[in-house]
TrEMBL record:
Entry's EC annotation: 2.7.7.72
Cofactor annotation: Mg(2+)
Organism phylogeny: Bacteria, Bacillati, Actinomycetota, Actinomycetes, Streptosporangiales
Protein name listed in UniProt: CCA tRNA nucleotidyltransferase
Keyword Transport found: no
């Protein structure tokens, strides 16, 4: 394939793509052509290769209906799946490549329905016209490698601009989720959204209400896990879309008056998110990023003006944890994500009780126990939550947290903090007290755990005496 509009680097990228996938793409293109059908590499697959982004997932489009696609690929593919066939998509695996073959189509929403209606098309140009953005409306015909760009996706790619192939109002009316995709691509790719697209997003923001929670969650999650989520989130707030899909975020823009001053919570939140991302060590961390974004959402509900011009937000971490749980549940996130994010929101202020290191070892043990498997993320969220411009204060907070982590490491070496258990297990408690399994054993176990947290290892004999004393005090033993 050779196209004069491609830059040298883009031409090399395209040539490299086809060098790698030619055995699959060209072979499949020949297969469709021999049966009288068109096939083209399309959308994100073309966009990403022109951006120099590698992917093993290949998107293809064809004039063949899904049932016909199944007939064509059944003896060629290593595996076929039909989970998306109702939307015109057939999944195929060939060697190490995953391909999705979708019939020329358009999607539109009935005003009374949350599900898109799929209508099949009959031409590649028509299919491209119905795509979300011009940068996703480029294609390469197979097997001839003819580059197709009827809506100027290549210039937009060079300018890093998001435009719709046609009128943005029509595009967003066909599928309102595209408004969220604009924000997601702004965050993922660092693109600027064209003014007319922003204007349409603002005017039509309420239309997003018709889209299912699952589809909204998917786009928001991809945005949060992107390279530049701040840009996408700011666009959601600016256009009013956030008020419909993540209303807690714009509510952080609290009014600041000259008498009662506090930091800009919205701006603070975006900085915390960026700083949390900077602390990641193994790629995007969904739980950490969502916790950073939601950690202060309890502040608007708990804001109080205090004497002397102070503003307080007492217990905003507790209120925020409840709000985070509710929002993520409504967005249909998995239960473990909901639980982990809300727990981090609840714990994010705990460190500030540490002062300059006054915590006892038992308090440190409780911090570790409460953090549990989230402890490393709690470390990162706590550090990211420091956005003060006072360098001396920031350095002091950092040093204090360094000291806390050092104490945790020392105690962990001495006591295996992550595995803290009472020195007497349930069977031993039953034997010493002469009681059967039941609530008494549970209460005794909890008491012995508190002793373990407060006093550390005291030895079996001392633990036995402490248990007996507790049992006498509580009328369990005469």
């Amino acid at each position: 394939m050779s196209v004069s509009n491609l830059s040298d680097s883009q031409q090399r990228a395209v040539n490299e793509l086809f060098r790698r996938i030619a055995p699959v793409a060209d072979e499949l293109g020949e297969l469709f052509s021999a049966r009288g059908h068109e096939l083209a590499l399309v959308g994100g697959s073309v966009r990403d290769v022109l951006l120099g982004r590698a992917s093993k997932d290949i998107d293809l489009t064809t004039d063949a209906r899904p049932e016909r696609v199944l007939e064509i690929v059944k003896d060629w593919a290593d595996a076929v799946w039909t989970i998306g066939i109702d939307f015109g998509t057939v999944g195929v695996r060939k060697g190490g490549w995953l391909l999705e073959i979708t019939t020329y189509r358009s999607e539109s929403y009935d005003p009374a329905s949350r599900k898109p209606e799929v209508m099949y098309g009959d031409s590649l140009d028509g299919d491209l016209a119905r795509r979300d953005f011009a940068v996703n409306a480029m294609a390469v015909r197979l097997p001839g490698h003819e580059f197709v760009d009827p809506y100027g996706g290549l210039p937009d790619l060079a300018a890093k601009t998001l435009r719709t192939p046609g009128r943005p109002e029509q595009s967003f009316d066909d599928d309102p989720l595209r408004m969220l995709r604009a924000a997601r691509f702004a965050g993922q790719l660092g693109f600027t959204v064209a003014p007319e697209v922003v204007e349409a997003m603002t005017a039509m923001s309420g239309r997003i209400e018709i889209v299912s929670a699952e589809r909204i969650r998917e786009e928001l999650d991809k945005l949060i896990l992107g390279a530049h989520p701040r840009a996408g989130l700011a666009l959601l707030v600016e256009t009013g879309l956030a008020a419909h899909v993540l209303p807690e975020l714009p509510k952080l823009r609290l009014e600041i008056d000259e008498h009662h001053r506090h930091k800009d919570v919205y701006e603070h939140t975006l900085i915390v998110l960026e700083q949390a991302i900077g602390l990641e060590t193994a790629g995007p961390d969904r739980v950490l990023r969502w916790a950073a974004l939601l950690h202060d959402i309890g502040k608007p509900k708990t804001r109080r003006n205090e004497p002397g011009g102070r503003v307080s937000f007492h217990h905003h971490e507790v209120v925020g944890a409840q709000m985070a749980k509710k929002r993520l549940t409504e967005l249909k996130f998995p239960k473990d994500v909901v639980s982990d994010v809300s727990k981090l929101v609840e714990l994010h202020l705990r460190f500030h009780g540490y002062g300059t290191g006054e915590w006892t070892d038992s308090a440190v043990r409780r911090y570790v126990r409460d953090g549990g498997h989230l402890l490393e993320r709690l470390h990162k969220l706590t550090r990211a939550d420091c956005t003060t411009r006072n360098k001396r204060k920031a350095q002091a907070l950092s040093r204090t947290y360094d000291q806390l982590e050092e104490r945790i490491a020392r105690l962990a070496d001495e006591e295996e903090l992550a595995k803290i258990r009472p020195e007497l297990d349930g069977n031993e408690i039953q034997e010493i007290l002469g009681v059967p399994p039941g609530p008494v054993v549970g209460r005794a176990y909890k008491h012995m755990l508190e002793i373990r947290m407060d006093q550390g290892m005291i030895g079996k004999d001392a633990a036995r005496q402490a248990l007996l004393a507790w049992a006498h005090d509580n009328g369990i033993l005469a």
